[in-house]
Amino acid sequence: MQKIRLGIVGYGNLGRGVQYAAKQNSDMEVVAVFTRRDPAGVKTVLPVKVDKYENMKNYVGKIDVMILCGGSATDLPKQSAEVASMFNIVDSFDTHAKVPEHYAALESAAKKAGTLGAMSVGWDPGLFSLARIIFGSSLPEGNTYTFWGRGVSQGHSDAIRRIEGVKDARQYTVPVESALERVRKGENPELTTREKHTRECYVVAEEGADKARIEKEIKTMPNYFADYDTTVHFISEEELLKNHGGIPHGGLVLRSGKSAAENKFLMEFSLKLDSNPEFTSSVLVAYARAVYRMHGEGKTGAVTVFDVAPKYLCPLSEEEQRKQLL
Amino acid sequence: MQKIRLGIVGYGNLGRGVQYAAKQNSDMEVVAVFTRRDPAGVKTVLPVKVDKYENMKNYVGKIDVMILCGGSATDLPKQSAEVASMFNIVDSFDTHAKVPEHYAALESAAKKAGTLGAMSVGWDPGLFSLARIIFGSSLPEGNTYTFWGRGVSQGHSDAIRRIEGVKDARQYTVPVESALERVRKGENPELTTREKHTRECYVVAEEGADKARIEKEIKTMPNYFADYDTTVHFISEEELLKNHGGIPHGGLVLRSGKSAAENKFLMEFSLKLDSNPEFTSSVLVAYARAVYRMHGEGKTGAVTVFDVAPKYLCPLSEEEQRKQLL
User: Fold this and answer.
1) Is the CB of residue A54 less than 8 Å from the CB of residue A22?
2) Beta bridge partners of A271
3) pLDDT above 80 (res B1)
4) Are B34 and B64 in contact (CB under 8 A)?
5) 3-state secondary structure of B53
């Protein structure tokens, strides 16, 4: 069997995760990694060719799907359409406010090139989006709730690190258990930002830094922390590395609804992930399979997880799927 | 806007549920109920025309999707293909061993008639099947577990009622909490039938019946109870009606897996349903929308939940879906 030939664009945590994930799928192989850094300086977790981003065009016809592993702030807004002008792609674009814009650019580039691009793939957006649409469609009268955590927020950790006197930091987003219980009981509560999540910060201060000031700066930081109940723990660098070295995450999507005869229903989807980027990568690889197959059936343009029938994700034949999984 | 015109074939708990569910979807209307009984004797929960099963052919062009609400044992094997020769259909066929046969018959009838039929829709098969395929595709290395309950099993309740001296009975299937915990911990246990579920029976005995014999007959009944830890409670008829009058159900699909770098992941989907048939009906109605739309795009033949892109289930436009749910 001809394997699905993948390319990886950008080699950080997500790119490494895609290499690991491809290894677990016997119908996949990674042909090359593309980087804007010096390829000689990129050390991959498994042996694979590393080439310059600019050389990508030489791989047309040799790679079936490019998995874009850059960030949503600056990389993907440029790269998704650019790469889609040559290859099928999957990206994990997650800047919610800019989804329409990103979709339009990808749709235009991919349609023109006759390629297919799946955007905003991962777990949120991605699998959590699937839960939201399927739950909402199954129970039209009800409320949907998304909780994130317990997990490390990279953005919030970075925000703490930018404070003067902070050497390193890790921020955990934590769902409020009592809020979750109210949802599970079918109370359909209106929950404020503060009522849904708390923020736990583990901070390594520089020698002699003013910890009281650092704590105050964190807790009053607008957008990031001011709207939350935030706790700050000062710890040693050793403790940070030992107990907070991973990138775990997870969360829940719940829908609480009722029938016209007033019977109550609760639908719940949850994830507990030891490694956020490695799970996201694993989902990206499954959608690369879908993109490959749908493109093979003639589909071009931009799609999201909403447009992908589940059969395309699974390596089994449709007959086997019905037999083993239905 | 032209509403999606539904027909209901068979009017038991599921048919009633479809009427209730359609009421919650403003883009749907129920045109008629079809029954093999005397239509005059069918009392519907909401006002609707009731007609004979044989008269269905007079509604071609007046109904967009027929929702089949009969049983999998004898009704659907005959009706699904028969009705699909005239209309788009959705059914909840759940005899797992006969899925290939049912699929082939529906595919053939629907292709020939130019209609579209969605089979095995509901929560299991249905939403649980979606969880199994999406979870398995997202985490190729791992184990999937399905637990059912706590909920009433109609088949097992009926089996108890057939025992001499039993006036009425209700059987609950209950997941074993400790087994569930082992799965959640990532132990990936091999679980026997007995280790996954227990069976709780609430029995109303006839006046003067031999309760010890009844209990023994239940606990040793092959296929139904012999392979399970079964408890039998004799209660009064009043208590049965008061505390066990509903048809609740639910369950969980879990997948425990890991990355090639040995990081662990847990995916979990669960349902808690006050009314099993009303929830199933609500899912059938969402898939009726999908069938209507996919048929409008030219799709014919048989499909399962694996073949339906989530966008088709949701009444929102694709643009609104991306904006509100992605």
Assistant:
1) no
2) A251, B267
3) no
4) no
5) helix
C-alpha separations of B188 from A21, A270, B130, B265 in Å: 20, 18, 21, 12
Say which DSSP state B228 is in. Answer: S
- Complete DSSP assignment for A119-184: -S-SBTTBHHHHHHHHHHHH-SSEEEEEEE-SEE-HHHHHHHHTSTTEEEEEEEEEE-HHHHHHHH
Q: What is the pLDDT of residues A49-103, one digit of tens each?
A: 999 999 999 999 999 999 999 999 999 999 999 999 999 999 999 999 999 999 9
Among all chains, which residue has been given the structure tokens 């049912």? B102
Residue owning tokens 């209660």: B235
Both tokens of A157, joined, read 């950790």
pLDDT tens-place string over residues B270-319? 999 999 999 999 999 999 999 999 999 999 999 999 999 999 999 999 99
Q: Are A322 and B306 inside 8 Å of each other by CB?
A: yes
The beta-carbon neighbor of B134 closest among A140, A246, A310 is: A310
Name the pLDDT band for A1 (thresholds 50, 70, 90): confident
With CA atoms as reference, the chain B residue closest to A307 would be B309
Would the CB atoms of A314 and B275 count as touching at under 8 Å?
A: no
Identity of the amino acid at A205: A
Helices then strands (H, E): number in chain A?
11, 14
Does the beta carbon of B20 lie under 8 angstroms from any beta carbon of chain A?
A: yes
Cβ B113 vs Cβ B239: under 8 Å: no
State residue B126 phi and psi, 5-degree precision: 140, -115
Cβ B225 vs Cβ B218: under 8 Å? yes
Strands A116-118 and A88-90, bridge-based pairing:
parallel
The residue type of B319 is: E
CA distance A290 to chain B (A): 10
- Chain B, 60 to 99: residues with Cβ < 8 Å from chain A are 96, 99
pLDDT tens, position by position, B12-32? 999 999 999 999 999 999 999
Q: Where are the beta strands (DSSP E) in B112-241?
A: 116-118, 142-148, 151-152, 166-175, 197-205, 229-234
Is the ipTM here above 0.90? Answer: yes
Kindly report, residue by residue over A187-206, the tens digit of the pLDDT: 999 999 999 999 999 999 99
Cβ proximity of A115 and A90 under 8 Å:
no
Tokens describing residue A295: 């493109």
d(CA A222, CA A153): 16
**CB under 8 Å to A191, separation ≥6 — which residues?**
A145, A179, A182
Q: What residues of B are in contact with residue A267 (Cβ under 8 Å)?
A: 269-271
Pick from A306, A298, A282: nearest CA to A13: A282
- Overall pTM > 0.90: yes
* Distance (Å, whole) CA B160 – CA B225: 10
- The three-point CA angle B326-A300-A6 to 5° equals 85
